[in-house]
UniProtKB/TrEMBL annotation, chain A:
The keyword Transmembrane applies. This is Na(+)/H(+) antiporter subunit B. It comes from Devosia oryziradicis. Its main location: membrane. The keyword Hydrolase does not apply. Belongs to the CPA3 antiporters (TC 2.A.63) subunit B family. The chain crosses the membrane at residues 5-24, 36-55, 67-92, 112-133. Residues 5-127 form the Na+/H+ antiporter MnhB subunit-related protein domain.
Automatic annotation (TrEMBL), chain B:
InterPro entries: Cation_antiport_E (IPR002758). Belongs to the CPA3 antiporters (TC 2.A.63) subunit E family. Its main location: membrane. It comes from the Bacteria. The keyword Cell membrane applies. It is found in: Cell membrane. This is Na+/H+ antiporter subunit E.
Automatic annotation (TrEMBL), chain C:
This is DUF4040 domain-containing protein. InterPro entries: CPA3_Na-H_Antiporter_A (IPR050616), MrpA_C/MbhD (IPR025383), MrpA_C/MbhE (IPR046806), ND/Mrp_TM (IPR001750), Nuo/plastoQ_OxRdtase_6_NuoJ (IPR042106), Proton_antipo_N (IPR001516). Pfam families: MbhD, MbhE, Proton_antipo_M, Proton_antipo_N. Its main location: membrane. It comes from the Bacteria. Residues 688-770 form the MrpA C-terminal/MbhE domain. It is found in: Cell membrane; Membrane. It is a multi-pass membrane protein.
UniProtKB/TrEMBL annotation, chain E:
InterPro entries: CPA3_antiporter_subunitC, NUOK/Mnh_C1-like. Keywords: Cell membrane, Membrane, Transmembrane, Transmembrane helix. The chain crosses the membrane at residues 6-21, 28-47, 75-96. PANTHER family: ANTIPORTER SUBUNIT MNHC2-RELATED (PTHR34583). Gene3D superfamilies: 1.10.287.3510. Belongs to the CPA3 antiporters (TC 2.A.63) subunit C family. This is Na+/H+ antiporter subunit C. It comes from Devosia oryziradicis. Pfam families: Oxidored_q2.
Length: 141, 159, 790, 99, 125, 518, 117
């Protein structure tokens, strides 16, 4: 798959996919989308990168072990649920903060953190799988 | 494209897809774009930045026009009752005068999207772009057409 | 009290290690002190009281460890601890230097504890537990010489047979508990006998007793148990464990016994066992085997007496139990000494040992005389008592008497064989040059023999200490002592005894002829319970092999067929049986076919999408090779997504499309490394089977779903979600709010699955990258190399 | 015909036409003959599905479905390139190279 | 329309099962995918179909304006799709590794764990 | 605002921090799994970390069990949503007890595995997968929502997938293919049943199902129950859908087999118990003949496999299946004694089966063989392993006073108390199962321990790390023996817990449905 | 009025778009070989989908949605040719019959010499 055309355009597509994935993730609470789909798109971006430039290059680009990213996702998703321990509520009770930044209100909430966790898990895992399959038989795992 | 430029473009893409060009939102977009760029920084991204916006816009307009024409042409071919007579498929080696990856890629994609042509391959030394055509008139006519059309415009954009 | 031996058992290996040569002596202190303790109870029991103790064990299950010492249990307990002490001593010498002597003591003492627990328990369930524990310890002791297959076979045989009986005992115990509400036997009255379950209870209790006490047809395990070291045979398989069944029958007599069925079964089977064992004893020439067979006979005799259930019979049973325990244990020890010193136990090659082993000879003589039942031995009293109750001149009594007489006579004959053949007569050369056994091996038989004599010279005491409390325990009425040393020629009993001895001598003289006859008979029969056991066991193993091979063949396809057959049944069965499809049929009062059969309210493009789905399925089904199937898979995936989109589920459509695309990507990535392009090559019969199964399941699901759709739907949950999603959960996309808030825990689990899939796939691919299999043993069967053509 | 009616009718017609297009492209997936033909048809199906999504968005007035179309635009080609890769590698294997 | 979907579910399930019985691991996997889609459609249908709006409250409102599609089955199916995809990925890689190690993609030829020439139990003690 | 018009959706009361013990074990496992995954390149640290997590889980579960014993079922509904709108977790005595037992055996197995795996660190994700497995098991035991149960089943399943292929030998891959397809199929069928159930009742909360199920179409409910029986029966390895178990359990390293044997089927059979006895008793009654046949056939057929098998761990696998038959017998006769026996059996099996596999691992290591025909001489070689094996075999066969006897006693009581052919059939099957199990066990013992070692075999090398392995196994065996000798605590728990299965009023009250209890 | 015109225009675009999609599908079925079919798929296809999206942009009445629809078209035009190119290249390199009915094939002679690029 080592063609100039693909290699050249891949980074652009990948960057756009990553941006789009973030959008889909953050918008999920109000519109179709969410952490899972976002993560899937982001992981697809990594897969494209892997196909265009090779798994090694993609892994280098990621810097972090993608499985560790997935683990981190579960950790923050779980932790976001644990926060409600301090509010006298059951596990996973949502906590909302409405930050006033200038004229806009930015809502920060545990469900949002949770969804970001979902995003990271899906991203990390699917990226792991795609890259592992890309580079015959799991070196670097 | 240099990283800063890319971040700006990505921030604008963000603004577009999220339908909100407020400063705060663009900042968020820039942040996300920056993450993407950092991720991609280790992928060798050689290439030259867009120099001339006007040329780019002109290329875009040409492209849209050609695309529509292309779609119509294909339609005509597809719907023609006597397919065998209409079709004259061929692969022509188009001698490239542009050399950079970005230029070749752009050209190849444009060719693919436009009338009766499809980029199949680029030769190893990047001197030839193999173009498949549905209705070959003459080889030379096709080459001249591309060279004076898209290739020239692409060269202008990246000049 | 029952705990002490277990503690000792646990410490035995340690003691063995520390006190090497004297371990036997040290450990014998345990049963010795128990014996002394029990002796102190004799007086109170003689006074007519039963002593009970109760330890709470499982109060939540209404289960206490209740113990009771009465005449019966005390007799058994004293015998067990007394002989146990001698056996421990004897073993120390017999197995001197054996590497696993510590284990041996451990098992032996544990067994003794179990046996004591068995006879002292008043609680039926506790009795069962100790019962099972004796089986297990006996298993370990029989298999002590474990490198020989015969020992292992004997052990397994004993375990299996006694375990079958044990199960019977358990069932019986539970049944009794359910009938009466108590586990305590002392609290039982006539409830069991009068209940409708009496037949079942009796059957299972008898099964337990008969297996443990080696009654026909379960007798065969006992001779095989002789693979155990001799002290074990002496202790378990003559004096104690096998008497467990006899004990159980005696113990249960008050509330289970003395019915017509009881008497009939016990007398008949007991008598048959007596004769069978006696004949078997004559057939043998191996001393130990002869003793084993006589033990079977003696157990049959005891069971017969219990079946008679008359005061005289019970007295006789008690006397016989003590007498038999003393002489049989002694004889086993003597046999062990002979074997140990002369190197063989075959009476045809032994002779004249009396000279080289005088003490052993004296011990043997004491025991054999008791076995023959000469006066001044306990055996004499026992025999007299047996005959006593049967002088009514009615034909059942006469028949029983005849059986007893013949049986006793044959046993007497065998006793003569045992005493005379090895010890008297000309000296024959033996594998080892015989000389006297070490003292620890002689203490036992001598003490036992002497005890028999001592007891028999105190008939009044015997009556008071043994018979009165014993019969009180079994029959509920004390039989006063009437034993006497005087020999009265007018007493018909004396003449019956004389007849027994005479007949016994005849048997002794004709032993060789009888043996030949008996062996011929065995050959002619060509079948014994023992070979039947092997047949059954190997049959079971073969059957197991066949069944397992049939069910677990390693063909995933057949496993799946099984699952889908079950699925078809589950989908269709209940609805069909319970008239569930009625919901789909027109009902008389409501509507008719036309109401049911309106053309579905679908628009053209919706039909188009459904057609797309069907086409997609068809494309997968008819695709020539797997890769085409993968591409075709995309069609139905897209169709499903569009269906979701058409019916108001954008999130689902979105996810479905993304997943569909990524599935194809991953499939393509994997397929890149596989060389597969075969067609689906099913034979017609498979095709028909699979197709039918698939269609039935598919139709089942559809109809099931239609039945459900015909009912009303409760949309409470979703209504609330819709009402509160924005105001409380601050989200406009209700589906997403459900995912991250209302049912966030599902999603937490879901992402864990995703993460898990990542780890699992990593593990899969790593194993290939590393090529390092963890240090596990290599499988025996090398994996089949190369592709095997189907 | 009010504009709203027109929209309803047009979207219905569009959906029918697009549905027809989907069904027709299935023919190529089924017929083949080469894997590349099928992949091409699958790719086209994704693109047509994009249009379908857009048409449904117009019909239901749920404009947010556009995001699905965007995602399809971005990801649709992924399956195509993965399968193209497969076509490439398998041929290499057939020619005697490593699988 | 519910009944049409119900019938369609049956076709999905039937094909899924048919493919699962094909002995070829890759085909069986496709069968699992098809079966999974069928079950997802089943849940979707069981939650009652509607052509009503998607369960998304329009911006600026607190409640949906009219009837909406049932959101709960959608959430359940979403979870099921994700889980199904994770499982599918694993089984696919497993099939791949099994093919590499066992040199077989036909389950009839995968007989290492339960060998064809399985020894008979010994008739001894 | 429109707040007034809103239906009551959230719980009013403040949740005490102490109530969190019902969900903390699960959360700890999940976060622990993820964190060990992140730490997987940190060498022995992953081991220590997972020990800490397990200790925390056990601490939470002990306090949970104490609370439940003290004050009855404890529940928490996530997100403060009023049940059935949120997902409820609810612990009764059985759930809490099983969760605790599962955590304890997991701890033992992790320590054992440390010895077995030697220098291998956590890089392969072993610890993460074990914690994930425990998370799935714990969630399955404690959840009060049927769909949530499906999710935890899948968590458990994927973790077991990862564990079963760890090392990747050909037989593992073969076993994993069968295990994978059949088990994923089972959960798919479960999902199918859930979809149908949701279509019927419109709810997934167990307490809510209890409330609305009696009014639903009985035929359809029976169909759902039959599907659940099939799906859970597959997970539990009930005859005739048990084939995956003997096909796979013997292939991974012993520690992993042990974990599977202790946890997986137990979760399936416990789910069956809850679904049929607690949730859908009316449908269960309709399916009774099926249940009886399944229980009896499982009891009878499984030990035959143990007799026939020459691969040690496969043989033990059949014993695991036989045990499932016992639990099924309790479900088939759901009297107080029956469900008590079933519950106690699950507890016993979690401990005993795990220990049995661990001992099998020691045996395999000592002999270097998988095949009992090639083993031998171990009795002479050492007492601890011999005694452990014998004790466990006896416990499995239900020989007193070992742990397995007590559930068997209760089940036999249930069988004998049941009038008619059902009781008799089940009783006979239980007894035959016990005898066949003992035959299989004593033959194994005779072949592995008593028989002389084959000439080519030099037993005695347990390899490095054997102390950890023996200590872990020994601790578990001691636990089995102690629990058998002093069963009062278990009976106390069963006396408290079993009535809740037959009359779930306390359970429902603890969950506190919107709109009050039925 | 403006709104009505926008709606009618949108409807028109929608119809044109769907018709182009239909043409693409027909082309893929009708055209004789892979490369010719690719013309249909990679030109009529995106144009059809593009028209539909532009119709959405026009009819949405929401600048954000309109922008996103346009962005969608751009993405489509960015990715479709790449896919088409890769597929064409891969197929051409691996198939022997592709050049069968071409009037001229200047790549055929070259591939033998330069297998990788
Ligand atoms: Na979402
Ligand atoms: Na999700």
């Amino acid at each position: 798959m080592n063609t100039i055309i693909f290699r050249t355009i891949a980074p652009l597509i990948v960057a756009i996919m990553l941006v789009f994935s973030a959008y889909v993730c953050l918008r999920g609470h109000n519109e179709p989308g969410g952490g899972f789909i976002g993560g899937l798109i982001a992981a697809s971006a990594i897969a494209v990168l892997g196909m265009a430039s090779g798994a090694q290059a993609a892994r280098r680009a990621l810097r972090l072990d993608p499985m560790a990213i997935a683990g981190f996702g579960v950790v923050i998703a779980g932790m976001s649920g644990l926060l409600s321990l301090f509010t006298g509520s059951p596990f996973m009770t949502s906590i909302w903060l409405h930050l006033e930044l200038g004229e806009t209100t930015v809502p920060i909430s545990t469900p949002m953190v949770f969804d970001i966790g979902v995003y990271l898990v899906v991203f990390g895992t699917i990226a792991t799988i795609a890259l592992a399959l890309e580079s015959d038989g799991g070196d670097g795992l | 494209m240099n990283p800063l430029m890319t971040v700006i473009v990505l921030a604008l893409v963000w603004g577009a897809i999220s339908g909100n060009f407020s400063g705060l939102n663009l900042l968020l977009g820039a942040g996300i774009g920056a993450i993407a760029v950092v991720l991609l920084s280790r992928i060798s991204g050689s290439g030259r930045s867009l120099r001339r916006l006007r040329s780019a816009i002109s290329l875009g307009l040409l492209f849209i026009y050609e695309l529509l024409v292309s779609a119509v042409k294909v339609t005509l071919v597809v719907l023609s009752p006597n397919l065998r007579a209409t079709l004259r498929p061929a692969i022509v080696a188009f001698p490239l005068t542009i050399k950079s990856d970005a230029e070749i890629t752009l050209l190849a994609n444009l060719i693919t999207l436009t009338p009766g042509t499809l980029s199949v391959d680029v030769s190893a030394d990047r001197s030839l772009l193999y173009v498949h055509t549905l209705t070959l008139d003459t080889r030379e006519a096709l080459i001249a057409d591309i060279a004076s059309g898209f290739e020239a415009k692409v060269r202008e954009v990246y000049a | 009290m029952a705990i002490a031996p277990f503690a000792a058992a646990a410490l035995a290996p340690l003691v063995q290690r520390i006190a090497r040569p004297f371990a036997g002596w040290v450990l014998a202190l345990v049963p010795a002190s128990l014996f002394m303790l029990l002796l102190r109870l004799v007086e109170p029991v003689m006074a007519g009281g039963a002593i009970s103790a109760r330890i709470g064990w499982v109060p939540a299950f209404d289960l206490d460890l209740s113990f009771m010492v009465d005449g019966l249990s005390l007799t058994f307990a004293l015998t067990i601890s007394g002989i146990g002490m001698l056996i421990v001593l004897y073993s120390g010498a017999y197995l001197k230097g054996h590497p696993h002597l510590g284990r041996f003591f451990m098992f032996l003492l544990a067994f003794m504890g179990a046996m004591l627990g068995l006879v002292l328990s008043d609680n039926l369930l506790a009795l069962f537990m100790f019962w099972e524990l004796t089986s297990v310890t006996s298993f370990l002791l029989i298999g002590f010489d474990h490198t020989r297959q015969a020992a292992r076979r004997g052990a397994i045989q004993a375990l299996v047979i006694t375990n079958i009986g044990g199960m019977g005992l358990l069932i019986g115990a539970i049944a009794v508990y359910q009938l009466t509400g108590t586990w305590d036997m002392s609290a039982l009255g006539g409830e069991v006998r009068s209940s409708g379950l009496y037949g079942l209870v009796l059957a299972v209790f008898l099964l337990a007793a008969f297996t443990k006490s080696a009654q026909l047809p379960f007798h065969f395990w006992l001779p095989n148990a002789m693979e155990a070291p001799t002290p074990v045979s002496a202790f378990l398989h003559s004096a104690t464990m096998v008497q467990g069944g006899v004990y159980l029958l005696a113990r249960t007599t008050p509330w289970l016994g003395n019915t017509q069925a009881w008497t009939l079964i016990l007398v008949c089977l007991g008598g048959a066992t007596l004769l069978w064992g006696a004949i078997g004893a004559i057939r043998q020439t191996d001393l130990k085997q002869m003793l084993a067979q006589t033990t079977i006979a003696s157990l049959g005799l005891s069971v017969l007496l219990l079946g008679l259930g008359t005061p005289a019979a019970i007295s006789a049973m008690l006397l016989y139990f003590v007498a038999h325990a003393l002489y049989k244990a002694g004889l086993f020890m003597v046999t062990g000494a002979v074997d140990h010193e002369a190197g063989t136990r075959d009476i045809t090659v032994l002779g004249g040992l009396a000279d080289s082993m005088p003490v052993t000879f004296i011990a043997a003589a004491l025991a054999c005389l008791a076995m023959i039942g000469l006066p001044l031995t306990l055996g004499y009293f026992a025999k007299e008592e047996m005959y006593l109750g049967l002088l009514s001149l009615q034909w059942p009594d006469i028949a029983t008497l005849a059986v007893l007489l013949v049986g006793n006579a044959m046993l007497a004959g065998v006793a003569m064989l045992i005493l005379i053949r090895p010890f008297l007569g000309p000296v024959l050369s033996t594998p080892k040059t015989a000389h006297e056994a070490p003292i620890a091996m002689l203490v036992g038989p001598i003490v036992l023999g002497a005890a028999g004599i001592v007891a028999s010279v105190m008939p009044d005491w015997l009556g008071l200490a043994l018979l009165e409390p014993g019969t009180l325990a079994v029959l509920g009425e004390a039989i006063s002592g009437h034993l006497s040393l005087a020999v009265d020629p007018t007493n018909p009993l004396l003449w019956l005894s004389v007849a027994t001895w005479a007949l016994g001598y005849l048997v002794y003289r004709q032993a060789a002829a009888l043996r030949t006859l008996s062996r011929r008979f065995e050959v002619a029969l060509g079948w014994t319970a023992d070979t039947a056991f092997d047949g059954a066991m190997f049959g079971l193993i073969r059957f197991s092999g066949a069944v397992t091979r049939l069910l677990h063949h390693g063909l995933l396809e057949i496993y799946l067929v099984t699952v889908f057959v079950m699925l078809a049944l589950a989908l269709v069965g209940p609805l069909l049986m319970l008239d569930g499809y009625a919901a789909l049929l027109p009902t008389a009062e409501l509507g008719n076919w036309s109401a049911k059969l309106t053309w579905p309210d679908l628009q053209v493009h919706e039909w188009g999408v459904i057609a797309l789905a069907l086409l997609g399925l068809g494309a997968v089904l008819f695709s020539a090779n797997r890769l085409v199937a993968i591409v075709a898979l995309g069609i139905q995936g897209t169709a499903v997504a569009l269906i979701f989109l058409l019916f108001g589920a954008p999130d689902l459509a979105f996810t479905q499309l993304m997943v569909e695309i990524l599935s194809v990507v991953i499939l393509a990535l994997v397929m890149t490394r596989l060389q597969l392009d075969e067609r689906d090559s099913r034979q017609f019969e498979d095709l028909a089977r699979d197709g039918t199964l698939a269609l039935v399941c598919g139709a089942g699901v559809s109809l099931f779903l239609m039945v459900i759709l015909s009912g009303s739907f409760d949309s409470r949950l979703s209504d609330l979600f819709a009402a509160t999603s924005v105001p409380i959960a601050h989200g406009h996309n209700i589906v997403n709010v459900i995912l991250v808030d209302y049912r966030g825990l599902d999603t937490l689990g879901e992402i864990s699955v995703v993460m898990g899939a990542g780890i699992a796939i990593m593990a899969l691919l790593r194993s290939r990258a590393r090529r390092t299999v963890p240090p596990a043993p290599t499988p025996i069967r090398a994996p089949r190399r190369g592709k095997v053509a189907p | 015909m009010t504009p709203a009616d027109a929209l309803q009718w047009t979207t219905l017609v569009a959906l029918i036409v697009l549905g027809l297009a989907l069904l027709i492209s299935v023919v190529r997936i089924v017929v083949g003959p080469t894997l590349s033909d099928r992949v091409l048809a699958l790719d086209l199906m994704t693109v047509i599905a994009m249009g379908f999504v857009g048409a449904i968005a117009l019909r239901t007035g749920q404009m947010i479905y556009v995001d699905i179309a965007i995602a399809l635009a971005l990801l649709g080609f992924l399956a195509t390139i993965a399968l193209a890769r497969y076509v490439m590698t398998r041929a290499a294997g057939r020619d005697g190279g490593a699988p | 329309m519910d009944y049409v979907l119900a019938a369609l579910v049956g076709f999905f399930v039937a094909l899924g099962i048919y493919l699962l019985l094909s002995r070829s691991v890759i085909r069986m996997l496709l069968g699992l995918v098809v079966l999974g889609n069928g079950v997802n459609l089943l849940i979707f249908t069981a939650g009652r179909l509607t052509r009503a709006a998607a369960p998304i409250v329009p911006a600026g409102l607190d409640q949906p304006t009219g009837p909406i599609a049932n959101p709960l089955p959608q959430a359940l199916i979403l979870t099921a799709i994700v889980i199904g995809f994770a499982m599918f990925s694993f089984l696919l890689v497993l099939a791949f590794r099994a093919y590499q190690s066992l040199d077989a993609d036909n389950t009839d030829n995968m007989r290492v764990a339960e060998p064809v020439d399985e020894p008979h139990p010994p008739l001894s003690y | 605002m429109v707040e007034q018009a809103l239906p009551i959706a959230m719980i009013d009361a403040v949740t005490a921090a102490a109530d969190w013990v019902v969900v903390l074990p699960l959360v700890l496992c999940l976060i622990g799994a993820a964190a060990t995954l992140m730490l997987r390149r940190a060498g022995a640290l992953t081991f220590v970390f997972s020990l800490l997590i397990l200790a925390g889980v056990i601490a939470c579960e002990v306090s949970l069990l104490l609370r439940v014993v003290d004050a009855g079922p404890l529940s928490m509904t996530m997100g403060k949503w009023l049940p059935p709108f949120g997902i409820s977790f609810a612990a009764d005595v059985f759930g809490a007890g099983f969760a605790l037992a599962a955590a304890v055996v997991t701890l033992v197995v992790v320590i054992y595995a440390k010895g077995e795996r030697g220098a291998e660190d956590g890089r392969d994700g072993f610890h993460a997968m074990v914690l994930l497995l425990l998370a799935g098991v714990t969630g399955s035991f404690l959840t009060g929502d049927l769909f949530n149960l499906y999710v935890w089943f899948e968590v458990m399943l994927i973790a077991s997938f990862g564990l079963i292929v760890l090392g990747g030998s050909p037989s593992q891959l073969d076993g994993a293919v069968k295990y994978g397809f059949l088990n994923f199929l089972a959960t798919t069928l479960f999902l199918m049943a859930l979809g149908l159930l949701y279509g019927l009742l419109g709810t997934l909360n167990m307490a809510d199902i209890l409330r609305v199920a009696p009014a639903a179409n009985p035929a359809a409910m029976a169909g759902v129950a039959a599907l659940l029986l099939l799906a859970f029966g597959m997970k539990a390895a009930a005859f005739p859908v048990n084939a995956w178990l003997p096909a796979a359990y013997h292939t991974p390293p012993a520690a992993i087999s042990a974990l599977f044997a202790g946890l997986l089927t137990k979760v399936g059979v416990y789910a069956l118990l809850r679904a049929l006895v607690v949730l859908l008793p009316a449908s269960r009654d309709l399916l009774e003949p099926v249940l009886i046949s399944v229980a009896v056939l499982t009891l009878l057929v499984a030990p035959l496999g143990a007799i026939a098998e020459t691969n040690l761990r496969r043989a033990i696998g059949f014993l695991v299946i036989g045990g499932i038959g016992s639990v099924l017998a309790g479900i088939a006769i759901p009297s107080l004694a029956g469900v008590s026996g079933a519950g106690l059996y699950v507890f016993h099996a979690i401990l005993t089966m795990t220990a049995l596999y661990l001992v099998a691992g020691l045996i395999e290591r000592q002999t270097g063989q998988f095949d009992t025909r090639r083993m031998g001489g171990l009795y002479a070689a050492g007492a601890p392993v011999s005694i452990a094996f014998l004790v466990l075999i006896l416990a499995t066969a239900g020989v007193p006073p070992f742990l397995g006897f007590w559930p068997k006693l209760l089940l036999l009581q249930a069988g004998l108390a049941e009038n008619g052919w059902i009781g008799g059939l089940v009783t006979v099957a239980l007894v035959v199962n016990a005898v066949l199990t003992l035959i299989a066990g004593s033959r194994l013992w005779a072949h592995i321990f008593w028989r002389s070692a084959p000439a080519e075999l030099a037993p005695g090398q347990l390899g490095t790390g054997h102390l950890l392995r023996i200590a872990a196994t020994g601790a578990l065996v001691v636990l089995v023996v102690a629990a058998g000798l002093w069963p009062n605590g278990m009976f106390e728990a069963v006396r408290l817990g079993a009535p809740d299965l037959l009359d779930p009023a306390r359970y429902v009250a603890a969950i506190g449905l919107a709109g009050g209890t039925p | 009025m403006m709104e009505a015109i926008a709606i009618y225009t949108g409807c028109g675009l929608l119809l044109v778009g769907s018709l182009f999609s239909l043409v693409a599908a027909i082309g893929v079925v009708r055209l004789p070989d892979l490369l010719t079919r690719m013309h249909a798929a990679s030109k009529a296809g995106p144009v059809g989908a593009g028209f539909v999206l532009i119709a959405v942009a026009l009819l949405s009445g929401d600048a954000g949605v309109a922008l996103r629809a346009i962005v969608g078209v751009v993405f489509l035009l960015l990715t479709t040719p790449v896919g088409a190119h890769l597929l064409a290249r891969a197929s051409y390199r691996t198939s022997d019959q592709l050049g069968g009915n071409m009037v001229l094939d200047e790549l055929k002679s070259k591939t033998g010499q330069s297998p990788g690029a």
